[in-house]
Amino acid sequence: MDNKIIAIAAVAIIVIAAVGIYMVAGNNDGDNTDEGDKVSLTIGGSTTIEPIMGELAKVYSEKNNNVSINVLGGGSGVGASNTANGTFDIGMCSRNLKASEVELGLKETKIALDGVAVIVNGAGVSDLTLEQIAKIFSGEITNWNQVGGNDRTIAVVIRDDSSGTRECFDTAMKGAVDGWTVKSGVPEQSSTNGVISMISSTPGSIGYVSIGALKGITSSSVDAISVNGVEATEENVLNKTYDIQRELVLCTKGDATGPAADFINWILSAEGQKIIAEEFVPLS
Q1: What backbone torsions phi and psi does residue 202 show, to the nearest 5 degrees?
Q2: Where are the beta strands (DSSP E) in 64-160?
Q3: Is 116 helix (H, G, I), strand (E, B) or coil?
Q4: Max Cα-Cα span within the chain
Q5: CA distance 91 to 59
Q6: 72 phi, psi to nearest 5 deg
Q7: Under DSSP, is residue 92 helix (H, G, I), strand (E, B) or coil?
Q8: What is this structure's pTM?
Q9: Tell me: the pLDDT tens digits for 14-43?
Q10: How far apart are CA 81 and CA 96, in angstroms?
Q11: How many C-beta atoms surround the C-beta of residue 164 within 10 A?
Q12: Which residues does 228 contact at the CB level (< 8 Å), separation at least 6?
């Protein structure tokens, strides 16, 4: 009798143990499925868009904890080329795509508007015409006293070739002066912060940055000047009275699909555009 009870108990223990193993295995399978559902997006390009994109990515990932978003810089040209070759899932461009980039199969989605502000240090001027600005950057005007400012040599600072900000600025200058080109030997900066840093430390200098970046300038020596009598403000970009302005876009290889499309659509939503408005001119 005792042996029979012991045998039954042993069988019961084996059954319970087996059920326990099944339940643990089931839970582990569920965890693995969750891991498999995790999504990673790599977004890179324009240093103008990079800071606000970091904020957008942070908020979106907090709302969708299965999505991890890595935001990189490099400039608009890098954003387009690395999206075309598959390095980036989404490219950031602070300009519209070029025809050569569209030929690579890239599609753009406009997410905001922006202007390019002209900033100076110790110039003694608060307003310049587009033509005067163009002639300063081409080297035809070399002292601030030639445009009613201080008797001080002008030091010009520009962005590098991959910059969408430079693309927008150069287009405006070419529209103001036929055959315009920037003078040779001008120091180039690879980021918005680089331009701001150089202007703030160089009396007599002039450069350009996104209007959105003006909010982050803390140096009292740096001033944004008006262009053709119009201040560099988001309102004047929206009403089209400010001359140096552009569209900010995201690009994908072909039409955006899957997680990339979901993220872009969220940026275009009221919630995403509210975050965009912290730095740029929203579409809505």
Answers
A1: -130, 95
A2: 67-74, 90-93, 106-121, 127-128, 155-156, 158-159
A3: strand
A4: 115
A5: 19
A6: -125, 165
A7: strand
A8: 0.76
A9: 433 433 332 333 333 333 334 458 999 999
A10: 14
A11: 30
A12: 127, 129, 130, 243
